Amino acid sequence: MKKCLDHPVFRVISDIVTRRDVSAYVIGGFVRDCILGRDHSIQDIDILIVGKGIEIAREVASSLIPKPKVSIFKRFGTAMFRYGDMEIDFVGARKESYSPDSRKPAVEEGTLEDDQRRRDFTVNAMAISLKRESYGAFIDPFNGLKDLQDRILRTPLDPDVTFSDDPLRMMRAIRFATELDFQLSTEVEEGIRKNRDRISIVSMERITTELNKIMMADTPSRGFLLMDKTGLLAIILPEVYTLKGVETREGKSHKDVFLHTLQVLDNISRKSDNLWLRWAALLHDIAKPATKKFMPDHGWTFHGHEFLGSRMVPRIFRNLKLPLHERTNYVSKLVALHLRPIALVTEQITDSALRRLIFDAGDDLEDLMTLCEADITSRNPGKVRKHLNNFKFVRLKLKEIEDKDAIRNFQPPVSGEEIMKIFGIPPSKTVGIIKEAIKDAILDGKIHNSREEALRLMYKLGEEIGLKPADQK
Ligand code: ATP
Ligand code: MG
Q1: Given ligand 1 and candidates 30, 40, 46, 107, which is best to mutate, with the most ligand atoms within 8 Å of its CB?
Q2: What are all long-range contacts of 59-65, with beta carbons under 8 Å and residues at least 24 apart?
Q3: 107 beta partners
Q4: Residue 154 CB: number of other CB atoms within 10 A?
Q5: Residue 349's pLDDT is what?
Q6: How many CB atoms lie within 10 A of CB 380?
Q7: Backbone phi, then psi, for 45, in 5-degree steps?
Q8: For a pocket test of ligand 1, which of 26, 114, 120, 216 has the largest count of ligand atoms closer than 8 A to its C-beta?
Q9: Which residue lies with its CA nearest to atom 18 of ligand 1?
Q10: Beta-carbon neighbours within 5 Å of ion ligand 2
Q11: Do the beta carbons of residue 282 and residue 266 sit within 8 Å?
Q12: Where are the alpha helices (DSSP H) in 28-158?
């Protein structure tokens, strides 16, 4: 296991803990990912000290050049610093006991094995010794290495205890299974199903952190299928859970919106690492259950699901304690617009419709097109190709119009203040009507997007409704 210790910082730690005669280990995710050969932009390294971690952290930091600033968390007996592209945490070995109504354990000092036992999964409990006489020794009392090779998540203790003690571990299980492409052991899956309701004692922020990591995995659908299978989905994201199922009437069925949504999410994840675009994919059809109707002539319809869905986004984000208003607006907007490019294909591609889409989508137009392309989930490859070609054509047309008309982030060439000043009128509905009429004329191609033509139209509109320019009164 020495290959995981080739960074010089491990030698520095080794010298110090050897001199002080304390045992120290690298443990957890770093060991797991080193064996798996996973790359990270920032290495997050956990150093376990049997004894007090804070002093060791200070001494290690003092021996490094340049000397990093150590952050100390006295209450937890931990310390950390950043060094180059590494974030190094020092923790004292702990033994924990939990009471049923809280995630906060009573903590006392423990041995290496006590500490390994309290870890979430066997593959996260492997340790490598740093002290000189045993440098590089691999300590794996729960056979994490075998589970790593078998790509399976097991808990060091009975999963019922592990999950009941800290229910966040249920989300972590599904997140690791998704990120690493591992299976849950049967016992782990059972343990989650049994303890699923205890997720309610975990703060929503921490759940959402795991959820976002699931969203950012290569194939996020894996996590959603596992959340569904174990019963967590209905608790955490009831709106997504409700997408499940197929109804048939008069021999006509609609597709399972949950499975379709997961396909769209996986499709978009192959194209983009934008977390919020992925959220838009997850929520694009979120109002289908609420708008579903069976029309004897047409079959199943979901009329207006894009608008209702876009209005559901803020509440869903609020419940998840997802931050950032501006992200909510972005996701709402993409949900609201997700049918527009399709309408362009099926109806008629007029310049006016293209300009309006550019105007409404603004800088998010490319993301919207990416979402629409990901939304094609037909099993018929011929159909998929046809739809993709249609969108290619729409993209081409959009570019043509954009190059010509500069509609994106369109600013009205005549402002409301100007209209009021020129006609000498107070703020009123009339001002809005004139402004809107100028915008429509530009988007419909009746006038060019120029100040001169806009002013000319403004005077003409004013005259039609009996307004006189103030300087001629
Ligand atoms: P990643 O950094 O990719 O999220 P990680 O395994 O390093 O994965 P961290 O959250 O950084 O995860 O935690 C470091 C280690 O601490 C884990 O490997 C695990 O041994 C332990 N750990 C973290 N959270 C828990 C928990 N809730 N219960 C038990 N052990 C945990
Ligand atoms: Mg980590």
Answers
A1: 46
A2: 59/16, 60/9, 60/12, 60/13, 60/16, 60/88, 60/90, 63/12, 63/15, 63/16, 64/9, 64/12
A3: 96
A4: 24
A5: 82
A6: 8
A7: -110, 125
A8: 120
A9: 28
A10: 29, 44
A11: no
A12: 29-36, 53-63, 112-117, 144-149
Cα–Cα dist 90/30, whole Å: 13
How far is the centre of ligand 2, averaged over its atoms, from the C-alpha of 35 (Å)? 14
Tally the C-alpha atoms within 13 A of residue 21's C-alpha that lie toward its C-beta.
0
DSSP reduced 3-state for 79? strand
Residues with CB under 6 A from ligand 1: 28-29, 44, 46, 119-120, 124-125, 166, 168-169
What's the burial of 359, exposed, middle or buried (CB within 10 Å: 0-12/13-18/19+)?
Answer: middle
Helix (H, G, I), strand (E, B) or coil at 129: strand
- Cα distance from N-terminal residue to C-terminal residue, the chain: 90
| CB atoms closer than 10 angstroms to residue 371 | 25
| Predicted confidence pLDDT, tens digits, the chain (473 residues) | 888 998 999 999 999 999 999 999 999 999 999 999 998 877 899 999 998 889 999 999 999 999 999 999 988 889 999 999 999 999 999 998 787 777 777 888 899 999 999 999 999 999 999 999 999 999 999 999 999 999 999 999 999 999 999 999 999 999 999 999 999 999 999 999 999 999 999 999 999 999 999 999 999 999 999 999 999 999 999 999 999 999 999 999 999 999 999 999 999 999 999 999 999 999 999 999 999 999 988 899 999 999 999 999 999 999 999 976 779 999 999 999 999 998 888 777 888 899 999 999 999 999 999 999 999 998 899 999 999 999 999 999 999 888 877 777 777 889 999 999 999 999 999 999 999 999 999 988 899 888 999 999 999 999 999 998 988 76
Tokens in use for 387?
């739809």
The CATH number corresponding to 2-150 among 3.30.460.10, 3.90.1150.10, 2.30.180.10, 3.10.290.10 equals 3.30.460.10
Tell how far the Cα of 208 is from the centroid of ligand 1, in angstroms. Answer: 16
In the block, residue with structure tokens 């997007």: 449
Looking at the chain, how many residues does it have? 473
Give domain limits for the chain: 2-150, 154-236, 416-472
Q: For 398-407, give one letter per residue: b (16+ CB within 10 A) or e.
A: beebeeebeb
Q: Which residue has the tokens 């990591």?
A: 213
- Out of 3.40.630.10, 3.40.1080.10, 1.10.1660.10, 1.10.110.30, select the CATH number for domain 154-236: 1.10.110.30
Which of 228, 153, 231 has the alpha carbon at shortest distance from 192?
Answer: 231
Q: Following DSSP, what letter does each residue of 357-402 receive, concatenated?
A: HHHHHGGGHHHHHHHHHHT---S-HHHHHHHHHHHHHHHHHHHHHH
Strand extents, DSSP E, 182-322: 183-184, 248-249, 252-253, 293-295, 299-301
